[in-house]
Amino acid sequence: MLTCILCDSDDAVDRLCGFDLCAPCHMGASFEANLARWSLELQSKTWHETHTYNGQTETISYLEARIAFPSPVDARAHFGTGPTSNHHSDLGSDAGLWQRLSDWFNPKDLEVGDPLFDDAVFISEPEGDELRRLLADEGVQTAIMELVSRGGVRLGDGWVRIRRESITTTPSLVSHGIPLALLAIHVDTFGRLTG
Ligand SMILES: [Zn+2]
Prior knowledge:
Blueprint: E1 13-16, E2 19-21, H1 23-26, H2 31-37, E3 41-53, E4 56-68, E5 76-80, H3 93-105, H4 115-120, E6 122-127, H5 131-135, H6 138-149, E7 153-156, E8 159-166, H7 173-194
Antiparallel strand pairs: 1-2, 3-4, 4-8, 5-6, 5-7, 7-8
């Protein structure tokens, strides 16, 4: 019998490519309560920007979310499908452009030796003594691959962070937050077991 990693119930079903989640948690039930249960702090913001190009106006909706996990882990990196496909908004636009150019010319890729993971995930800006051991964790790999398929994730300084954008609808905090929470839980568990 599988246990749901988010709520601990005994009827987890393997619904989300390798994640052991019960059906209610997979649908986003009690998301904030489950985060509190794991002592994970969530912060998020959404906003819209309107762009006009060749007389066509389009509105892009953005979501940024980050989850803090309690245990210290010495690992920092950006995970995406290529060099900084998802730069972090702490950088201003000039700094972000400079970072993207710099990464494009000097990609600092890291491979972990698992072909499925290495094919799906491009790791840039890898830092920290524990990064390689952390990335050998199957739960960490699964959560990162799910997040990369949706646009990337940044890890470091006690946070996991995502930024999503859409022109059709505001990206859902719960939908994107579930794999983000699973990554935070697996990283935090790694930190408690090795710290
Ligand atoms: Zn559950």
